[in-house]
Amino acid sequence: MDQEFHRIKRLPPYVFAEVNALKAKARYAGEDIIDFGMGNPDQPPPAHITEKLVEVLQDPRVHRYSNSRGIPGLRKAQAAYYARRFGVELDPEREIIATIGSKEGLANLAQAITSPGDIILAPNPSYPIHAFGFIIAGAAIRAVPATPREEFMASLERAVRHSVPKPLAIIVNFPSNPTAEVADLDFYGEVVEFCRHHEIYAISDLAYSEVYFDGPPPPSILQVPGAKDVAVEFTSMSKTYSMPGWRIGFCSGNQKLIAALARVKSYVDYGAFTPIQVAATAALNGPQECIDEMRQRYRQRRDTLIEGLNAAGWPVPSPPATMFAWAPLPERFRGMGSLEFSKLLLNHAKVAVAPGVGFGEYGDDFVRLALVENEQRIRQAVRNVKAFLRAGNEIPAGGEAEDGVGGRLAS
To answer: Beta strand 354-355 with 366-370: parallel, antiparallel or unpaired?
Structure first.
Protein backbone atom coordinates (compact mmCIF):
# COMPACT_ATOMS: atom_id res chain seq x y z
CA MET A 1 0.00 0.00 0.00
CA ASP A 2 1.28 3.45 -0.88
CA GLN A 3 -1.09 5.80 0.95
CA GLU A 4 0.41 8.54 3.11
CA PHE A 5 -0.50 8.76 6.77
CA HIS A 6 -2.21 12.01 7.76
CA ARG A 7 0.05 13.01 10.66
CA ILE A 8 3.23 12.09 8.79
CA LYS A 9 2.17 14.27 5.85
CA ARG A 10 2.24 17.29 8.15
CA LEU A 11 5.90 16.71 9.05
CA PRO A 12 8.54 17.99 6.62
CA PRO A 13 11.74 15.99 6.07
CA TYR A 14 14.03 16.36 9.09
CA VAL A 15 16.55 18.97 7.94
CA PHE A 16 19.26 17.79 10.31
CA ALA A 17 19.18 14.34 8.72
CA GLU A 18 20.97 15.61 5.60
CA VAL A 19 23.93 16.93 7.57
CA ASN A 20 23.93 13.86 9.81
CA ALA A 21 24.10 11.57 6.78
CA LEU A 22 27.07 13.49 5.37
CA LYS A 23 28.74 13.44 8.77
CA ALA A 24 28.32 9.66 9.04
CA LYS A 25 29.66 9.20 5.51
CA ALA A 26 32.72 11.29 6.30
CA ARG A 27 33.47 9.38 9.46
CA TYR A 28 33.02 6.08 7.65
CA ALA A 29 35.66 7.32 5.19
CA GLY A 30 38.02 7.91 8.14
CA GLU A 31 37.73 11.69 8.30
CA ASP A 32 37.93 13.48 11.65
CA ILE A 33 34.76 15.56 12.00
CA ILE A 34 34.57 18.12 14.79
CA ASP A 35 30.92 17.99 15.74
CA PHE A 36 29.05 21.05 17.00
CA GLY A 37 25.77 19.80 15.58
CA MET A 38 23.78 18.34 18.48
CA GLY A 39 23.41 19.69 22.01
CA ASN A 40 24.61 16.42 23.46
CA PRO A 41 26.77 16.93 26.60
CA ASP A 42 30.09 15.13 26.29
CA GLN A 43 30.79 14.77 30.02
CA PRO A 44 29.35 12.05 32.29
CA PRO A 45 27.08 12.91 35.22
CA PRO A 46 28.79 13.73 38.54
CA ALA A 47 30.06 10.66 40.38
CA HIS A 48 27.59 10.81 43.28
CA ILE A 49 24.69 10.50 40.81
CA THR A 50 26.02 7.45 38.98
CA GLU A 51 27.05 5.88 42.29
CA LYS A 52 23.46 6.19 43.51
CA LEU A 53 22.23 4.57 40.29
CA VAL A 54 24.59 1.62 40.75
CA GLU A 55 23.57 1.26 44.39
CA VAL A 56 19.85 1.20 43.65
CA LEU A 57 20.30 -1.24 40.78
CA GLN A 58 21.29 -3.93 43.31
CA ASP A 59 17.82 -3.92 44.85
CA PRO A 60 15.75 -6.59 43.06
CA ARG A 61 12.53 -4.72 43.84
CA VAL A 62 13.32 -1.73 41.59
CA HIS A 63 13.20 -3.58 38.28
CA ARG A 64 9.42 -3.62 38.04
CA TYR A 65 7.20 -1.00 36.40
CA SER A 66 7.62 2.45 37.87
CA ASN A 67 5.28 5.40 38.47
CA SER A 68 4.16 7.28 35.34
CA ARG A 69 3.92 10.58 37.22
CA GLY A 70 7.34 10.09 38.84
CA ILE A 71 8.12 8.57 42.22
CA PRO A 72 7.05 10.78 45.15
CA GLY A 73 10.62 11.46 46.28
CA LEU A 74 11.58 12.80 42.87
CA ARG A 75 8.60 15.13 42.71
CA LYS A 76 9.38 16.38 46.23
CA ALA A 77 13.00 17.00 45.19
CA GLN A 78 11.80 19.05 42.22
CA ALA A 79 9.54 21.09 44.51
CA ALA A 80 12.53 21.73 46.77
CA TYR A 81 14.57 22.88 43.75
CA TYR A 82 11.91 25.42 42.76
CA ALA A 83 11.69 26.67 46.34
CA ARG A 84 15.43 27.30 46.75
CA ARG A 85 16.16 28.47 43.19
CA PHE A 86 13.08 30.57 42.39
CA GLY A 87 11.27 31.03 45.70
CA VAL A 88 8.25 29.23 44.19
CA GLU A 89 6.16 26.83 46.28
CA LEU A 90 4.78 23.83 44.37
CA ASP A 91 2.56 20.96 45.46
CA PRO A 92 4.45 17.78 44.48
CA GLU A 93 1.18 15.87 44.15
CA ARG A 94 -0.85 18.22 41.97
CA GLU A 95 1.60 20.72 40.45
CA ILE A 96 4.57 18.56 39.40
CA ILE A 97 4.92 15.59 37.08
CA ALA A 98 8.14 13.85 36.05
CA THR A 99 8.54 13.28 32.31
CA ILE A 100 10.78 11.08 30.21
CA GLY A 101 12.74 14.16 29.20
CA SER A 102 11.14 17.54 28.54
CA LYS A 103 10.72 16.68 24.84
CA GLU A 104 8.43 13.76 25.65
CA GLY A 105 6.57 15.92 28.14
CA LEU A 106 5.91 18.67 25.60
CA ALA A 107 4.72 16.16 23.00
CA ASN A 108 2.37 14.43 25.43
CA LEU A 109 1.01 17.72 26.74
CA ALA A 110 0.22 18.67 23.15
CA GLN A 111 -1.69 15.40 22.74
CA ALA A 112 -3.53 16.04 25.99
CA ILE A 113 -4.81 19.55 25.36
CA THR A 114 -5.01 20.02 21.58
CA SER A 115 -8.02 19.58 19.33
CA PRO A 116 -7.68 19.58 15.52
CA GLY A 117 -7.55 23.15 14.29
CA ASP A 118 -6.48 24.71 17.58
CA ILE A 119 -4.01 27.57 17.16
CA ILE A 120 -0.71 27.56 19.03
CA LEU A 121 1.63 30.55 19.13
CA ALA A 122 5.17 29.21 18.84
CA PRO A 123 8.47 31.06 18.43
CA ASN A 124 10.30 30.87 15.13
CA PRO A 125 13.12 29.90 15.14
CA SER A 126 12.78 27.49 18.04
CA TYR A 127 13.46 23.95 19.20
CA PRO A 128 11.43 21.82 16.74
CA ILE A 129 9.21 20.08 19.33
CA HIS A 130 7.73 23.46 20.32
CA ALA A 131 5.90 23.60 16.99
CA PHE A 132 5.86 20.02 15.76
CA GLY A 133 4.62 18.47 18.99
CA PHE A 134 1.43 20.45 18.45
CA ILE A 135 1.38 19.93 14.68
CA ILE A 136 1.42 16.17 15.28
CA ALA A 137 -1.54 16.68 17.63
CA GLY A 138 -3.50 18.47 14.88
CA ALA A 139 -2.89 22.12 15.75
CA ALA A 140 -2.17 25.03 13.44
CA ILE A 141 0.95 27.01 14.31
CA ARG A 142 1.20 30.78 14.16
CA ALA A 143 4.79 32.00 14.44
CA VAL A 144 5.82 34.71 16.89
CA PRO A 145 9.28 36.27 17.21
CA ALA A 146 11.84 34.26 19.18
CA THR A 147 12.82 37.25 21.29
CA PRO A 148 11.71 38.78 24.60
CA ARG A 149 11.78 42.28 23.13
CA GLU A 150 8.81 44.56 22.39
CA GLU A 151 7.92 42.90 19.09
CA PHE A 152 7.02 39.69 20.94
CA MET A 153 4.13 41.25 22.86
CA ALA A 154 3.01 43.15 19.76
CA SER A 155 2.87 39.88 17.84
CA LEU A 156 0.71 38.33 20.56
CA GLU A 157 -1.77 41.18 20.28
CA ARG A 158 -1.97 40.74 16.50
CA ALA A 159 -2.38 37.00 16.86
CA VAL A 160 -5.36 37.32 19.19
CA ARG A 161 -7.02 39.92 16.94
CA HIS A 162 -6.59 37.94 13.73
CA SER A 163 -6.78 34.28 14.78
CA VAL A 164 -9.96 32.22 14.53
CA PRO A 165 -10.35 30.37 16.79
CA LYS A 166 -8.55 32.26 19.54
CA PRO A 167 -5.09 30.79 20.30
CA LEU A 168 -5.05 27.98 22.84
CA ALA A 169 -1.51 28.48 24.13
CA ILE A 170 1.73 30.43 23.81
CA ILE A 171 5.15 28.76 23.89
CA VAL A 172 8.04 30.68 25.44
CA ASN A 173 11.62 29.41 25.64
CA PHE A 174 14.25 31.47 27.44
CA PRO A 175 17.16 31.01 27.59
CA SER A 176 16.38 30.17 24.00
CA ASN A 177 17.39 27.18 21.97
CA PRO A 178 18.70 28.04 19.39
CA THR A 179 19.17 31.82 19.73
CA ALA A 180 20.55 31.87 23.33
CA GLU A 181 18.52 35.00 24.13
CA VAL A 182 17.44 35.47 27.74
CA ALA A 183 14.32 37.00 29.30
CA ASP A 184 13.78 38.82 32.58
CA LEU A 185 10.95 38.58 35.09
CA ASP A 186 9.26 41.72 33.73
CA PHE A 187 8.86 39.98 30.39
CA TYR A 188 7.24 36.97 32.04
CA GLY A 189 4.99 39.32 33.96
CA GLU A 190 3.68 40.77 30.69
CA VAL A 191 3.14 37.28 29.25
CA VAL A 192 1.21 36.12 32.32
CA GLU A 193 -0.94 39.26 32.38
CA PHE A 194 -1.70 38.84 28.67
CA CYS A 195 -2.57 35.17 29.06
CA ARG A 196 -4.80 35.73 32.08
CA HIS A 197 -6.63 38.54 30.31
CA HIS A 198 -7.24 36.52 27.13
CA GLU A 199 -7.65 33.12 28.86
CA ILE A 200 -4.73 31.56 26.99
CA TYR A 201 -2.26 29.06 28.44
CA ALA A 202 1.47 29.80 28.65
CA ILE A 203 3.92 26.92 28.23
CA SER A 204 7.47 27.76 29.25
CA ASP A 205 10.52 25.69 28.32
CA LEU A 206 13.27 26.40 30.87
CA ALA A 207 15.64 23.58 29.95
CA TYR A 208 18.68 25.90 30.23
CA SER A 209 17.82 27.38 33.63
CA GLU A 210 21.32 26.67 34.99
CA VAL A 211 23.44 27.20 31.86
CA TYR A 212 24.07 30.93 32.02
CA PHE A 213 27.21 33.06 31.94
CA ASP A 214 26.44 36.79 31.84
CA GLY A 215 23.95 38.60 34.02
CA PRO A 216 21.64 37.23 36.71
CA PRO A 217 20.33 33.64 36.78
CA PRO A 218 17.40 33.15 34.38
CA PRO A 219 14.03 33.47 36.15
CA SER A 220 11.04 31.16 36.01
CA ILE A 221 7.65 32.22 34.67
CA LEU A 222 6.17 30.67 37.82
CA GLN A 223 7.78 33.45 39.90
CA VAL A 224 5.12 35.83 38.55
CA PRO A 225 2.18 36.17 40.97
CA GLY A 226 -0.80 34.32 39.53
CA ALA A 227 1.28 32.48 36.94
CA LYS A 228 0.03 29.09 38.03
CA ASP A 229 -3.45 30.14 36.92
CA VAL A 230 -2.32 29.91 33.29
CA ALA A 231 1.21 28.54 33.04
CA VAL A 232 3.26 25.37 33.18
CA GLU A 233 6.99 25.11 32.86
CA PHE A 234 9.21 22.32 31.56
CA THR A 235 12.67 21.75 32.99
CA SER A 236 15.28 19.11 32.28
CA MET A 237 18.18 17.39 34.00
CA SER A 238 19.94 16.73 30.69
CA LYS A 239 22.15 19.81 30.61
CA THR A 240 22.27 20.76 34.30
CA TYR A 241 23.67 17.41 35.43
CA SER A 242 24.97 16.03 32.08
CA MET A 243 22.22 13.39 32.04
CA PRO A 244 20.79 13.58 28.48
CA GLY A 245 20.54 9.83 27.94
CA TRP A 246 18.81 9.31 31.29
CA ARG A 247 15.69 11.12 29.98
CA ILE A 248 14.45 12.89 33.08
CA GLY A 249 12.50 16.14 32.95
CA PHE A 250 9.58 17.81 34.69
CA CYS A 251 6.44 19.78 34.04
CA SER A 252 5.39 22.10 36.87
CA GLY A 253 2.64 24.62 37.47
CA ASN A 254 -1.03 24.82 36.48
CA GLN A 255 -2.97 21.93 38.05
CA LYS A 256 -5.37 21.47 35.14
CA LEU A 257 -2.56 21.10 32.60
CA ILE A 258 -0.59 18.82 34.92
CA ALA A 259 -3.65 16.59 35.37
CA ALA A 260 -4.21 16.45 31.60
CA LEU A 261 -0.58 15.48 30.99
CA ALA A 262 -0.75 12.87 33.75
CA ARG A 263 -3.85 11.30 32.22
CA VAL A 264 -2.24 10.91 28.79
CA LYS A 265 0.99 9.60 30.28
CA SER A 266 -0.90 7.00 32.29
CA TYR A 267 -1.96 5.44 28.98
CA VAL A 268 1.36 5.65 27.11
CA ASP A 269 4.17 5.00 29.61
CA TYR A 270 5.06 3.63 33.03
CA GLY A 271 7.56 6.36 33.81
CA ALA A 272 11.34 6.28 33.72
CA PHE A 273 13.23 3.30 35.16
CA THR A 274 13.00 3.56 38.97
CA PRO A 275 16.79 3.53 39.63
CA ILE A 276 17.14 6.48 37.26
CA GLN A 277 14.45 8.37 39.14
CA VAL A 278 16.14 7.64 42.48
CA ALA A 279 19.50 8.80 41.13
CA ALA A 280 17.84 11.94 39.73
CA THR A 281 16.45 12.58 43.22
CA ALA A 282 19.99 12.31 44.57
CA ALA A 283 21.12 14.82 41.95
CA LEU A 284 18.53 17.41 42.99
CA ASN A 285 19.02 16.86 46.73
CA GLY A 286 22.77 16.33 46.73
CA PRO A 287 25.82 18.62 46.41
CA GLN A 288 25.35 21.29 43.77
CA GLU A 289 28.97 22.32 43.15
CA CYS A 290 28.81 20.21 40.00
CA ILE A 291 26.48 22.82 38.45
CA ASP A 292 29.09 25.55 38.91
CA GLU A 293 31.68 23.26 37.34
CA MET A 294 29.38 22.58 34.38
CA ARG A 295 28.74 26.28 33.92
CA GLN A 296 32.44 27.12 34.04
CA ARG A 297 33.22 24.39 31.49
CA TYR A 298 30.74 25.78 28.99
CA ARG A 299 31.85 29.35 29.66
CA GLN A 300 35.45 28.48 28.82
CA ARG A 301 34.38 26.67 25.66
CA ARG A 302 32.16 29.58 24.67
CA ASP A 303 34.98 32.08 25.07
CA THR A 304 37.44 29.90 23.14
CA LEU A 305 34.98 29.41 20.27
CA ILE A 306 33.69 32.98 20.01
CA GLU A 307 37.11 34.62 20.30
CA GLY A 308 38.50 32.17 17.76
CA LEU A 309 35.74 32.60 15.19
CA ASN A 310 35.81 36.38 15.43
CA ALA A 311 39.59 36.38 14.99
CA ALA A 312 39.17 34.06 11.99
CA GLY A 313 36.89 36.54 10.27
CA TRP A 314 33.49 35.12 11.21
CA PRO A 315 31.70 37.62 13.50
CA VAL A 316 29.61 35.63 15.99
CA PRO A 317 27.98 37.20 19.07
CA SER A 318 28.82 35.71 22.45
CA PRO A 319 25.82 33.81 23.90
CA PRO A 320 24.87 34.95 27.42
CA ALA A 321 23.35 31.54 28.22
CA THR A 322 22.70 27.99 26.92
CA MET A 323 25.31 25.69 25.41
CA PHE A 324 24.87 27.13 21.92
CA ALA A 325 26.21 29.91 19.73
CA TRP A 326 23.73 31.28 17.18
CA ALA A 327 25.99 32.31 14.35
CA PRO A 328 24.91 34.46 11.39
CA LEU A 329 26.23 33.07 8.12
CA PRO A 330 29.44 34.79 7.02
CA GLU A 331 28.48 37.62 4.67
CA ARG A 332 29.94 35.94 1.60
CA PHE A 333 27.70 32.89 2.05
CA ARG A 334 24.39 34.42 3.11
CA GLY A 335 22.74 33.91 -0.26
CA MET A 336 22.96 30.13 -0.15
CA GLY A 337 21.06 29.46 3.08
CA SER A 338 22.02 27.56 6.19
CA LEU A 339 21.71 23.99 4.88
CA GLU A 340 24.07 24.48 1.93
CA PHE A 341 26.49 26.44 4.09
CA SER A 342 26.47 23.62 6.65
CA LYS A 343 27.37 21.17 3.89
CA LEU A 344 30.21 23.41 2.75
CA LEU A 345 31.55 23.68 6.28
CA LEU A 346 31.42 19.93 6.72
CA ASN A 347 33.07 19.13 3.39
CA HIS A 348 35.80 21.79 3.51
CA ALA A 349 36.43 22.53 7.19
CA LYS A 350 35.44 19.12 8.62
CA VAL A 351 33.18 20.95 11.09
CA ALA A 352 29.55 19.91 11.63
CA VAL A 353 26.95 22.47 12.69
CA ALA A 354 23.14 22.54 12.82
CA PRO A 355 21.56 24.48 9.93
CA GLY A 356 19.35 27.25 11.28
CA VAL A 357 16.49 26.44 8.90
CA GLY A 358 15.95 23.27 10.94
CA PHE A 359 14.62 25.52 13.73
CA GLY A 360 12.21 27.36 11.42
CA GLU A 361 12.38 29.38 8.22
CA TYR A 362 13.39 32.51 10.13
CA GLY A 363 16.57 30.74 11.19
CA ASP A 364 17.86 30.22 7.66
CA ASP A 365 20.46 33.00 7.91
CA PHE A 366 22.13 31.27 10.87
CA VAL A 367 23.75 28.06 12.00
CA ARG A 368 23.84 26.75 15.56
CA LEU A 369 27.07 25.56 17.17
CA ALA A 370 26.84 23.40 20.31
CA LEU A 371 29.61 23.65 22.92
CA VAL A 372 30.10 19.89 23.11
CA GLU A 373 33.75 19.60 22.04
CA ASN A 374 36.69 20.25 24.38
CA GLU A 375 38.83 23.35 24.04
CA GLN A 376 41.58 21.61 22.08
CA ARG A 377 39.05 20.41 19.52
CA ILE A 378 37.43 23.85 19.41
CA ARG A 379 40.78 25.44 18.59
CA GLN A 380 41.31 22.91 15.81
CA ALA A 381 37.84 23.70 14.46
CA VAL A 382 38.66 27.41 14.46
CA ARG A 383 41.85 26.75 12.47
CA ASN A 384 39.87 24.70 9.97
CA VAL A 385 37.21 27.39 9.64
CA LYS A 386 39.85 30.08 9.21
CA ALA A 387 41.43 28.14 6.35
CA PHE A 388 38.00 27.55 4.82
CA LEU A 389 37.13 31.26 4.92
CA ARG A 390 40.50 32.23 3.43
CA ALA A 391 40.00 29.87 0.49
CA GLY A 392 37.52 32.36 -0.92
CA ASN A 393 38.56 32.13 -4.57
CA GLU A 394 37.99 28.38 -4.65
CA ILE A 395 34.60 28.46 -2.92
CA PRO A 396 31.72 30.13 -4.77
CA ALA A 397 29.55 32.52 -2.77
CA GLY A 398 26.37 30.92 -4.16
CA GLY A 399 25.34 27.54 -5.49
CA GLU A 400 25.05 24.21 -3.77
CA ALA A 401 27.70 22.05 -2.20
CA GLU A 402 28.09 18.56 -3.55
CA ASP A 403 26.78 15.87 -1.24
CA GLY A 404 29.89 13.83 -1.79
CA VAL A 405 32.27 14.11 1.15
CA GLY A 406 35.42 15.93 0.15
CA GLY A 407 34.00 16.55 -3.32
CA ARG A 408 34.37 19.75 -5.27
CA LEU A 409 31.70 22.39 -5.25
CA ALA A 410 29.36 23.08 -8.11
CA SER A 411 30.55 26.10 -10.01
So the answer is: antiparallel
Query: What is the residue-averaged pLDDT of the chain?
Result: 92
326 by DSSP, 3-state: which? strand
Q: Are 105 and 249 in contact (CB under 8 A)?
A: yes
- Helix-, strand-, coil-residue percentages of the chain, each rounded to 5: 50, 15, 40
On whether the CB atoms of residues 20 and 403 are closer than 8 A, the answer is no
For the stretch 373-391, pLDDT in tens is 999 999 999 999 999 998 8
Average pLDDT over residues 123-139: 95
Q: Does 175 sit behind a cis peptide bond, omega within 30 degrees of 0 on the bond before it?
A: yes
Query: Does the predicted TM-score (pTM) go above 0.85?
Result: yes
Question: What does the buried/exposed string (b/e) look like for 89-126 if buried means 16 or more CB atoms within 10 Å of the residue's CB?
Answer: ebebeebbbbbbbbbbbbbbbbbbbbeeebbbbbbbbb
Residues facing residue 241 across a β-bridge: none
| Per-residue DSSP letter, 397 | S
